[in-house]
Inverse folding.
């Protein structure tokens, strides 16, 4: 999952970025509204965490521009406790939810999962394919009811594939789901993670589509 974090407060930004990375998210952090708008035009994000009081361009303007382009990217606004009018304006301008600062990281993750479920039209919180079940809340994976131990990166690759069953994801698309800006990507990293997933979930669970990328098997 790729997250755009828009926050000019260094302490809040650092703690949210670290927390999201620990959960296996790719995080791009911009510290002003102009950079946020540029990032939203250049990249595709699963969710945007948007502060409203920002240098160069306010968060409300960033949000209004995004929705004017009919981009449906889920947006959570982050506001101060006493900023009720801002929250109302933000929700009216197309934000999907809001968080009151300071917020708990567990609550942030739960709200992200909820807006992603709504965005994808899934009421069911688990992702499942041929007996492999991923619970985004606990990041635990089971196969036919048995727990499977995966690394954070392997989990992120598997989640990217489970989110779009039937789709072929290129190596670049998978990398974009699991790495944020400035994170070093080893050239064969995705192959290594796919190899690890096949070893743990069965050789045929992830299929290679030559020249295109990877997809989940359609047969058990
Ligand atoms: Ca701010």
């Amino acid at each position: 999952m790729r997250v755009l974090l828009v926050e000019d407060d260094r302490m809040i930004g650092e703690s949210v970025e670290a927390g999201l990375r620990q959960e296996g998210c790719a995080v791009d952090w911009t510290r002003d509204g102009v950079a946020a708008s540029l990032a939203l035009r250049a990249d595709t994000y699963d969710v945007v965490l948007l502060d409203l009081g920002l240098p160069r361009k306010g968060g409300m303007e960033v949000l209004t521009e995004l929705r004017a382009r009919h981009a449906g990217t889920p947006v959570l606004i982050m506001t101060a406790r006493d900023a009720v009018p801002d929250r109302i304006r933000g929700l009216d301008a197309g934000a999907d939810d809001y968080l009151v600062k300071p917020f708990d990281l567990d609550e942030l993750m739960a709200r992200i999962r909820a807006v992603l479920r709504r965005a994808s039209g899934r009421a069911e919180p688990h992702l499942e394919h041929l007996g492999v079940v991923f619970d985004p809340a606990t990041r635990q994976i089971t196969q036919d009811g048995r727990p499977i131990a995966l690394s954070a990166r392997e989990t992120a690759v598997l989640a990217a594939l489970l989110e779009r069953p039937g789709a072929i994801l290129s190596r670049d698309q998978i990398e974009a789901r699991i790495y944020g800006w400035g994170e070093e990507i080893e050239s064969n990293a995705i192959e290594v993670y796919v190899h690890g997933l096949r070893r743990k979930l069965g050789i045929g669970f992830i299929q290679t589509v030559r020249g295109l990328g990877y997809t989940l098997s359609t047969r058990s």
